[in-house]
Amino acid sequence: MLCPILAGLGCEPREGARGEDARGEAELPAIASPRVEVGGCRDLSSPELGPPRCALRAEAPGRLWFWIDIQAEAALEVRVDGEPAELLERASVDGGLRLAVAVPASAKAAVVLAGVDPPWREPFTLALDRERDPEEVRVARRMVGLDEAAGTLEDPARVGEARALLEGALDGLAGADRLAALETLRRLHRGRPEALRYTQEAAALAEDLGRERALAELAGVAAYLQLYTRGDRVAARRWVEVAGALEGAEAQTWAGYYGGLLALEIGDLGAALQAFEQARRAAVRVGLLRDYVAVSEMYGSLLAELGRSEEALSSARELLAQAGAPGLRCEDRALLYGNLAWTHLLLAEAGHPHDPPRPLLLDELELVDAEGTCPDADAASLARINLAYVALAEDEPEEALAWLESLELEAMPAWLDPGWLTQARARVGLETGRDELLPSFVSRPEPSAEIGLRWTAAVREAETLERFGLLEAATRSYLDAEGILDEVSSTLGIDVGRELFFAGRSASVRGLVAVLIRRGQVDEALCRIRLARARELRVLDQAARIAGLSAADRERRRSILEQALTLRDRAVAEAREDWRYSAPQRVRREQRRKEQLAEAEALLDEALRLVGGGQGALGCEGLAAPRPGELTLLPFEGEDAAWIFARDVEGVKVARAELGALGRVLDDPQLRPKIEAAQRVRVLAGGEVWARALHALPFAEGVLLDAAPVIYALDLPTRARSEEGAGSAPERARAVVVADPSGDLPQAKAEARAVADSLRAWGWSVALREGDRATRARLSEDLGAADLLHYAGHGAHRGLSGWDAALLLHDGDTLSVADVLALPRVPKLIVLTGCETATLSAETSAGGMNLGRAFILGGADWVVAAEGEVDDTLARAVGEAFYAALGERGAPLDAAAALRRVQLELRARRPDAAWRSFRVLAP
Question: How many Cα neighbours within 13 Å face the side chain of 686?
């Protein structure tokens, strides 16, 4: 019988396969043995001599997973104890081949994998060891029906009896027998303080015995317990690092999962996503289905919370496909449905594409309700509350109330904050006019409650007060909600993508602005919009600074944050226990807490100093005031209307417009006199408004640009410029001009050469980088000593909130946002005529990141850049004309005035051209 090429399993090679076949063709040369990862062992060790060894339970069949770094179509031979293996699965996974191999209870020697087509130089051999747990452990497990893989109990009523049995036997056990008892005890003490003690003791013993897989699993559990039962992030980090130092896909799965949870605790969202992605890839390679589901649920909900809707939706649909997997228990399937529903609910509330969450929650409830396959009263209560939130999101308050009234309040899970139930009832009350459902105005969640609940409660209170006409009190509640978001931005939330977190919580600033305008406080309304916008931009600025840190400094910052937050949480936890102590003891405890909190604040200050710069003022008095002759324009879209605020040295005016239709609002009598008097206009814009180009809006008989030069400002303090790498003061100004590095923009090459000639005529020293001379390494070196960069080539706006935007260079090379932020010094003057160099994300009010902003945050004084795509010929026209419009040699360089002249001339000659795409960015 011929051996099937695609299966190639359990067959003897046909005659001639070792030499030449009947036609004289030579066999394929043997290849180096590929990398193999293993999953499914009770323990997996790799001794210095001999094959890796896999421990399995004695006299029990098993299933082992192998991930092999080869093409999935390669033919293999798989044997167990010398006999052809039964394959339970063969799949292409993560760029390699995954196999699931059945291991009979009788197997005691080895599993051997060998290449057939192509052949391997050496087979992969996994030696098998059979282990029998001590009698006490087996009796205790049978007593409670303990599932080894899931850690679940079928008979919780006998847990105390099983604990007593094992604890009495511990002193008589040693080595692997004692380890088995300790691992069982930590499961039997789940939810109790003893669980951490037994887990850590078991981990120490596993390390002494060299049982790496057991150590990895126990280290992950210890990290989880330290994090969520003691709030000790420092200890949790130590255990994550223990797991991360071990080899194997299983260890990397657990290190990634618990490391991601820890990263979430300190607001390091980028690290959390990276860790979860690592864990997902490792888990899927070696068949850790339950772990894959758990980490994918966290990964998807985090993507949804950040507003990364396409990725979140793709992840959720991919995960849903696992719901019917045969290795998934009922309890896990129910949890999967609930978490996927939450992901889709987050997407729905943010207005992003999503799948309906209701069917998923109904499927979950069917499984966990009293008559379901796996009843769980806590899970059923949570499903009903989430169904109420879905009904509210779908404008069905009566249905929401029905779900809330179906809850048995006395059976509510103790771990569920009742505030979520209160807020759901309040939403129903607001939308149906049932005042009896509204909470007391003095009823707020504790300061230690989850941030989303605290913010939601403050907003609902403000909306209630506003409904009753109590505008002053509503203002205070909206301010409280904004203060909660300020708290997040000033301590945690400093990371790439965190600005999207704030975008999903814009209801507080929108409500606040509407109330302030109703009260006639337009100057205060403008201030609050600027502060909310600055909150996003400060996070953007801090994330930019973090991106420029060395790896050692990033690690130092992470460690400092973990220490600070652990100290702060420990002080809060201790305060709850004060009632147990006498008055003198309470005084001493209070003093110790003050010292802990002071130490925590000092550590947070150190973390900020490490990044550079502070958080900036959080009050109106800290915002930049307009200069004489300058007018600040700020467009703002609320729930029901849009406004444009105008502020100069005389004060603030505001004009109302319909949503999405700014039209001729600049001609409003409130705004027109201020615009006519302005010598320069400073626009504070972002989000969806950014692409509408305020400088091109109709005004009087022309456009706003006819009235005055326009700059688009970040509204951040100017960053101190580093002169590191600049050397001594140059005798003449230095420019770097990049010309068509991708070789497909002939007009860009002509533009760059013309610009270089203009600058040389002014006496500038010019480095012209064309074609293969335009590389990231060359530019990174050039820019440290340059005063001006002119880039004529392709730009690309991409990635999370624009963080992967880049200038395209020679042969696929790029100069990305991260590269710009890592430069020790950037030129003061930047001209980027490529596409999308000023494009912003519409998903946040401030707009996120782009290449122009990256240079501004790096220390540039101004940047000329393009929003959206621009024609090659138009880019050349703007680039060449810009320098002619700058003025005489030696005169102050005014980019806004120069670009204004260029754009108005283009508009006059070519009114249909995309002249409005270009703009000047400034701090």
Answer: 26
Alpha helices, H only, 471-582: 471-491, 498-503, 507-518, 522-547, 551-575
H or E segment and range at residue 372:
none
Q: What is the mean pLDDT of the chain?
A: 83
Phi first, then psi, for residue 546 (nearest 5°) are: -65, -40
Residue 777 neighbours by CB under 8 Å, 6+ apart: none
Residue 114 CA to residue 120 CA, distance in Å, equals: 6
39 Rama sector, left if φ>0, alpha if ψ -120 to 50, beta otherwise: beta
Q: Pull the structure tokens for residue 910.
A: 């070519």
> Structure pTM?
0.68
CA pair distance 914, 906, nearest whole angstrom: 9
CA dihedral 348, 352, 355, 360 (to 10 degrees): -30
Q: Are 361 and 369 in contact (CB under 8 A)?
A: no
Beta carbons of 383 and 364 less than 8 angstroms apart? yes
Q: Among the ranges 14-18, 289-293, 497-501, which has the highest mean pLDDT value?
A: 289-293
Identify which of 579, 580, 601, 578 has the alpha carbon closest to the alpha carbon of residue 591.
578
State residue 338 phi and psi, 5-degree precision: -65, -45
CA atoms within 13 A on the CB side of 226: 23
Other beta carbons less than 10 A from residue 536's beta carbon = 26
* Pairing status of strand 83-84 against strand 75-80: antiparallel
CA 569 – CA 292 distance, rounded (Å): 30
Q: Which residue is listed with tokens 């996994």?
A: 126
- Cα–Cα separations (whole angstroms), residue 44 to 78, 251, 284: 19, 11, 18
Residue 337 CA to residue 366 CA, distance in Å, equals 11
Cα dihedral 638, 643, 646, 647, rounded to 10, equals -30
Q: How far is Cα 821 from Cα 892, in angstroms, rounded to an integer?
A: 27
Burial of 889 (0-12, 13-18, 19+ CB in 10 A): exposed
Separation CA 306–CA 346 (nearest Å) = 10
Structural element, H or E, at residue 92: strand 86-93
What's the pLDDT tens digit per position in 405-418?
888 776 676 666 67
Tell me how far apart the alpha carbons of residues 891 and 888 are, in angstroms, rounded to a whole number.
6
Please give the single-letter amino acid code of residue 763. G
Burial 221-238 (b: 16+ CB within 10 A, else e): bbbbbbbeebbbbebbbe
Separation CA 344–CA 312 (nearest Å): 9
Say if residues 674 and 613 touch (Cβ distance below 8 Å): no
Instruction: Give the residue among 765, 771, 758 at the shortest CA–CA distance from 735.
Output: 765
Query: What pLDDT score does 22 carry?
Result: 41
CB 642 within 8 A of CB 733: no
* Statement: residue 23 has pLDDT above 70: no
Q: How far apart are CA 555 and CA 191, in angstroms?
A: 32
- Tell me how far CA of residue 219 lies from CA of 198, 214, 266, 275, in angstroms: 12, 8, 20, 16
Helix (H) / strand (E) element for 537: namely helix 522-547
Q: Which has more confidence, 923 or 844?
A: 923
Question: C-alpha dihedral over 396, 402, 407, 413, to 10 degrees?
Answer: 0
H or E stretch at 15: none
Residue pair 600/565 in contact by the 8 Å Cβ criterion: yes
Give the Cα separation of 656 and 644 in Å (integer): 7
Residue type, 886: L
Question: What single letter denotes the amino acid at residue 745?
Answer: L
> Cα–chain-centroid distance for residue 673?
45
Distances (CA, A) of 250 to 260, 283, 747: 15, 7, 54
Percent of the chain whose predicted confidence (pLDDT) is above 70: 85
Q: Please tell me the distance from the alpha carbon of residue 567 to that of residue 552, in angstroms, as a whole number.
A: 23
Answer whether 708's CB lies under 8 Å from 679's CB. yes
User: How far from each other are the two terminal CA atoms of the chain, in whole angstroms?
Assistant: 76
Quote the DSSP letter at residue 120: B
